[in-house]
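Apologies for my clumsy wording, but are you able to produce some protein sequence, whichever is easiest, and the tokens describing how it folds?
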Amino acid sequence: MADLHTMYRVMILYMLNQVEYPLTNTQITNFILEKEYTNYFTVQEILSDLISSQLIPAESTHNNTRYRIIFPCKNIGCHQRRYPHLFCGA
């Protein structure tokens, strides 16, 4: 299970890294659910983990939560160096 959670963390970080604007909780969740990667509760758990690890901030406005990446990277190797705990099954 830890390996899957690591993959989901990296997937969300990658998504946020690819855009120049914050993504909403709905956008992230819908993408992952439409591809049938996992369920709603796991997505919310991973987002919560990323927030508590201070890797992404949550910005709430009205009934909407937006997420952005704090330290953008050009490639996955950069993420591995910057966030090694994500790639070690933490």
User: Anything to note?
Assistant: The helical segments are 2-18, 25-34, 40-52, 76-82. The chain has a mean pLDDT of 85. Residues 2-18 form the longest helix (17 residues). The CA atoms of residues 5 and 20 lie 25 Å apart.
